[in-house]
Amino acid sequence: MPSKIVSFTLNGRPTEIMVKPLETLQTLLREQLGYTATKAGCRQGGCGSCTVLVNGEPMLSCLLPVEDIEGQEIMTLEGLAQDGELHPLQETFFEKFAIQCGYCTPGMLLVSKALLDHNPQPSREVIVEALTGNYCRCTGYEPIIQAVLETAQRMNGHGK
Amino acid sequence: MTAKVYYQPQSLGEATGLLAEHGPVLLVMAGGTLAMPLINEGISLPEKVMGLRRAGLNYLRRSNGSLVIGATTTLTQMIDQQEIPILQEAAQNVGSWAIRNMGTVGGNLFAPPPAGDFAVALLALDAQIKLVSKSGARTIPLSDFYTGFMTTALVPGELLAEILVPIPKGTTTYLKYGRRHANTPAVVTVAAHVQFEGERVIDARLALNAVGPHPFRAGKAEQALIGTRLDPPTLEAVATIAREESEPFTDAVASEWYRQKMVGIFVRRALEKIAA
Q1: E strands along A13-141, which residues?
Q2: The whole model's pTM is what?
Q3: Which of B8, B39, B183 sits opposite A67 (nearest CB)?
């Protein structure tokens, strides 16, 4: 069967794209659209580095056929900073040295954003649980958890 | 990527029609958390794939004392429902947040051990499953669904459409033991449902996962619980029987020897939670 045209919203922008059967969102983002913040780690749904938000909910773009996101709202890391201003999560990740090699960071940031949108003042335990699908091999997780806690405090319970 | 076509049926009828038309070469997937890793890795090279995300199978409703779960209802939706708390706990024990947003209840029934940690709770609740084909439908107990390692009672042309879970009348418990607290394959998972009359057990269902070719009910251990008061000697005896009934395996998570030891311990702990 020929390729299909799929329409969706990418970081707020209406997007229409032609894809091959079962092409993953990860491949589309990285290879066709040049949105390389979304990483290609394990391609097994195990590492979390390819996490995107679909209608605000974390999903793994390596397991997601583009045809399945017709009409949905997708957010990648490229959409997190607004009007040239870093998102508070990005600022605290930077300040708290929650980034070392940076490979896991896009996934960590997007899951943390989704978490704070759902629960503006999460406990440490809730943060750990939310980030359990995102592997970091550099920082030992602690600075990342601290950065999310700090962001929640700075945003004073006002998510988003 | 070798797929030549990705079908996205808009209804159950359309889905069973496609299955009848294409036969077993049509790979059926829902959330993609089982099928896509194999496709990405080139282990599975299907030419025809059918995705069920839009087939209208994403729903939860109460009917005649049962919770009816559409097969593509996600594990996150099972955490959000409040009708059957043990199913919240079981869903929470599968994968990560993103995996639970994608993975489905129906799909979990096809997950080979040590995966299948949602299905094991459904077994303990004596769930029924509705299998639908172009020519009809049948409902069977989930315990009759599994026939071996990665084999099921599905016949060609049939699709798992619905899971029917009786609202539990007794006490339930769910206990998963893995190498980490979350997002981890099981060493052993235990789900139990026990009904009492006074202090005596009148009905018991004990389901195990990661210690056999598929999630299964430990029937002899269940029998040994009937009529008892769940006193410590009974629990020791039942744990031994459950250990003998299991067929543990060795994988990257745990050895057969270790799983065998842990079956007994976690069966006892699960029943202690019910006795408490």
Answers
A1: 13-19, 51-54, 57-60, 73-75
A2: 0.96
A3: B8
